[in-house]
Specification:
This protein is an alpha+beta fold and 248 residues long. The protein is 38% helix and 20% strand. The protein has ten helices and seven strands. Strands 1, 2, 3, 4, 5, 6 and 7 form a seven-stranded mixed beta sheet that branches. A hairpin with a 3-residue loop joins β3 and β4. α5 crosses α6, α7 packs antiparallel against α8 and α8 crosses α9. The longest helix has 18 residues.
Amino acid sequence: MTASSSADIWSGTARMGFGWGLFVGRAGDNRPHAHHAVQIMLSETPQRVWTATQGWQSGRGAVIGADVLHRLEESSQPVTLLYLEPDSAEGRQVAAHAPADGLLPFMGIACALAAAQASENPMPAMVDCLFPAAQPRLQLQGDPVIEALIASLPTTLPERLVIAAMAVQTGLSPSRVQHRFRAHTGLAVRPYLRWRRLLTALDGVTRGLSLTDAALDAGFSDAAHFTRTFRRHFGIAPSVLLQLRTGV
């Protein structure tokens, strides 16, 4: 599906995976807001971005930290927005190496824009294009014990999964469960489960479920909880994303 091209409506395409979200298109209305994701903005032409600390700035690339109050000016030209879980390896890499003023230099932007179109999960390549001199990320480690643990998780995830119970199931200590889970998935347990709920709920809506049914099936307490969690990570309601062509 495509959204209207009106100036205050978002139009383009969106994709999500564990720990990341990607939007490519024209940005619509987004009043000053703060969300939990680390956000990268890229554009072929200068795009204005406002933050509470820097005011309005114009550039072809910018990094906005997690929980930073900001606003992206409605765009007449396509922009690429990459959202990263701050707890992920890539989120920590970007946060550690972002310029003080948030504006990205010209070098690397064209590479990252090309990477955004190149694969099902463009996030690692995009980050490497923008921060080639950063400390290399640890490679994920295949772990059959954690893989079996993940496979055993129910589709409807409860609000809280106790790590101690995971330790009993796997025969590991709670600290080893957390360490091996991050090494296997790139995320700590709780952020991984939160993204899994978001992806499951969005998949349900795209299959025709109502927001309420999709939210409950994914493990959210209700549709309002799902909407709050989604807005906290992306700054928009899930209904906006669903107007776009999505790949979940």
